[in-house]
Amino acid sequence: MAGNELLYGLIGSGAGIVVLVVGYNAWQERKARRNAEKAFRSEHRDVLLEGAGAGADMEPGERKEPASARIPQQAPIGRAAEPELAVEARAIDAVAHIEAPAGVVGGALVQGAGGPLSQVHRAVRWFGFDDGAHDWVPLDAADKRSFTRVCAAMQLADRRGPVSERELDAFTSAIQRVCDQFMAVPRFMERSEALSLAQGVDQFCAALDIQIAVNVVAGPQPFAGTKLRGLTEAAGLRLEADGCFHARDDAGLSQFVLANSDASMFSADTLRSASISGVTLSLDVPRVSAGVQVFDKMIALSRQIAAAMQGQLVDDNGKPLNEASLGMIRSQIQQFQEQMHGQGVAPGSPLALRLFV
Q: Which of 79, 126, 165, 274 is the Cys-Cys partner for 139 at CB 3.0 to 4.6 Å?
């Protein structure tokens, strides 16, 4: 999907994500006016950059900015205009642009920011502008390359909700401190716009967030832990450090999880002697790429456990799940994942994994 199409999808249609449209438009309009660089411009109209009334009292190509935010109309001689960051960074992150005229080692900057950013409990990603490749490249603490332009991008929302004013201020303060240390100059997204965008991204996530869980409850006799483990591992699941069995795809991403219904953790030792009243199998729909197929695989294991151990497949209310009920759930998963694709956030994609964590 092209970059603009992803933006359109991400902030797509529906009243539930109107705030994201408004927040993102406001940010992009201001950013477009500030950026003189025209690299990678699309050939078709970008309605996100053409908000109603934006620049109505200005001549084409003219900009109106506060003096404190003024940027040269053209890139300095001998210095290429930089392209935008990846579209998802511009859509869901608060980005701090950092100028280091004397150059700074990328890894040293990232490492130096570790202390100041310890009070920021959101994902922060770093990028350096590679003049040779004419593109932004990810940075980590081991990077030895020198850069004059760097970006720090803090994710604005996830399943914990949107960033707060306090978190945003902590991020800004931390970046300013590390820039002072390295003789660099940061340029931040406007505070009100960042908070508005954070609320919009949070509403967008809430509209797409769904998890499916089914339960297999024991009959007259509780499940024997050793037999349960044998059935589960034979199906390809493995017991992990979180006390749950995980089914993973070839890339190592979790497809669905089997847990103890009473919320206690499984372990190799307890399973040897455990008597289990039931298990819960759950599927995190936004985080898997083929939801229907994964659901069918999860239900097949549920039925296998129920048949082998005289259990019953039920929903969260204890009501038996028949074929009609399962078919309705399967249809809902299909529709939901099609909606995600239509809005530019493919289920199981890196963007979805960032948002739904």
A: 126
| Inter-residue contact 128 to 108 (CB < 8 Å) | no
- Residue 47 tokens, joined: 């309605």
Q: Does CATH number 2.40.30.10 belong to domain 209-355?
A: no
**Looking at the DSSP assignment, which residues form a beta bridge with residue 158?**
161
Residue 268 amino acid letter: A
For residue 98, the number of C-alpha atoms closer than 13 Å in the C-beta half-sphere is 34
- CA 209 to mean position of chain CA atoms: 12
Residues forming beta bridges with residue 138, ordered by sequence position: 127
Task: Output the pTM of the full model.
Answer: 0.72
Give CA–CA dist 299/313, Å, rounded. Answer: 9
Q: Which residue in 224, 238, 214, 246 sits closest to 308, CA to CA?
A: 224
Q: Report whether 313 contacts 347 (CB < 8 A).
A: no
Region(s) of the chain under CATH 3.30.1400.10: 209-355
